[in-house]
Amino acid sequence: MFDRPEVGEKAILVNINFNNINHEEDTNELIQLVTSAGFDVAEIIQSKKNQPDARYFVGSGKAQELVTIKENTKSSTIVFNHELTPSQERNIEKLTGLRVYDRTALILYIFSQRAKSYEGKLQVELAHLDHLSSRLTKGWSHLERQKGGIGVRGGPGEKQIELDRRMLGIRIKQLKEKLKKLDKQRGMQRRARRRSNVLTVAIVGYTNAGKSTLFNSLTHETILAEDKLFATLDTTSRKLFIEPGHKIVISDTVGFIKDLPTTLVESFKSTLEEATDANLLLHVVDISNNNKSEQINEVEKILKEIKASNLPQILVLNQIDKIPLKAMFDRDEYGNITRIQLSAKTGDGIEFLKLAIVEYDQRQINQRNGQYA
Questions:
Q1: Could you tell me if 83 and 197 lie in one domain?
Q2: CA–CA dist 176, 181 (Å, integer)
Q3: Which of 195, 206, 230, 280 has the most CB atoms less than 10 A away?
Q4: Which domain holds residue 282?
Q5: What is the largest CA-CA distance in the chain?
Q6: Pick from 53, 72, 101: which residue ends a domain?
Q7: How many independent structural domains does the chain possess?
Q8: For 44-65, b where at least 16 C-beta lie within 10 A, e where not — what string?
Q9: Same domain, yes or no, for 200 and 77?
Q10: Dist. CA 239–CA 247, nearest whole Å
């Protein structure tokens, strides 16, 4: 689907401020996305505009500036921290001779690099094809040539673009059918857990908040945990052994991000259902991040979108080792632990999280046994 960048391949970044109060944080996140994708940052273009330019998004003056920067930096790629229309993308490619990624395409690109499991690869391909289907009118000459023959390649006079669209539709249908089968298998596993009264806990949160590090700390696993956005995509579930008498399964889920492409949310629904179907969510937040409040809101927005916003949730304020802060927890008026400060990296405060999970499970056991203490 995507070609990996060569070592040292340079990208020009574009982030326009349309009256965005968090513009600097958005630029920093764009830098993280681009470096996570494997590119070196050549230069960052920033300016203020009231609305996007219809032709080049950035305006003709800035577009010409991109040509100069390309020549000076020997860049091969330009990345926009915005959604581009197919015509804007085409016009910029034609003017600059650069490969163009908008925000959605960049995130899809990173997902294509990170997906390891069979299901993950299918989900990424489906999201990519959904995104591509809206861009089949880009106007390249090979898409406009008429096909004169009769046979597998289409009927008389059928344009290449029509064939491409039809082939795309067939592949999308195949992918959806395969994912549906995998979703059924996952559903059977979830129902089996419910029947055996297993407490299911899902770790959710903004990408790079430390979810996988927390998962490893709780389960003593060694799944990939890098300082990159979307370091892991595939959901991993393990039994969690804390205290005798408590059957617990914990899952590490894909990270969320601001303006997560709709195609990805849709394609990853079966994976995200690990969160939807959980008994308890651990919402992990990087407490050292200056933009943590907005990140919390973005996660809540996506949880609402996948119908998981009403599930019981513990707020896990991670990475206290960076501030530093002391490990602690808060209880609500009913005595339930709802907020914990800890460091998944050092293990400081992990015992509070284990206590919170066991207490929650004990309440569920008491309810099943008709006890409400």
A1: no
A2: 9
A3: 206
A4: 191-368
A5: 78
A6: 101
A7: 2
A8: bbeeeeeebbeebbbbeebbeb
A9: no
A10: 8
Please report how many Cα atoms fall inside a 13 Å half-sphere around the Cα of residue 294, on the Cβ side.
Answer: 13
Q: Would you say residue 349 has pLDDT above 80?
A: yes
Do 304 and 202 sit in the same domain of this protein?
yes
Reported as a pLDDT band with limits 50, 70 and 90, residue 210 is: very high
- Mean pLDDT check: name the lowest of 16-30, 99-113, 302-316: 16-30
Which pair of structure tokens corresponds to residue 109?
A: 């690109």
Q: Name the β-bridge partners of 79.
A: 13, 101
What distance lies between CA 314 and its chain's CA centroid?
A: 21
Whether 71 is covered by a domain: the verdict is yes
Alpha-carbon gap, residue 89 to 117, rounded angstroms = 31
Cα distance between residue 40 and residue 167, in whole Å: 35
Torsion of CA 347, 351, 357, 358, to 10 degrees: 150
Q: How confident is the model at residue 5 (pLDDT cuts 50, 70, 90)?
A: low
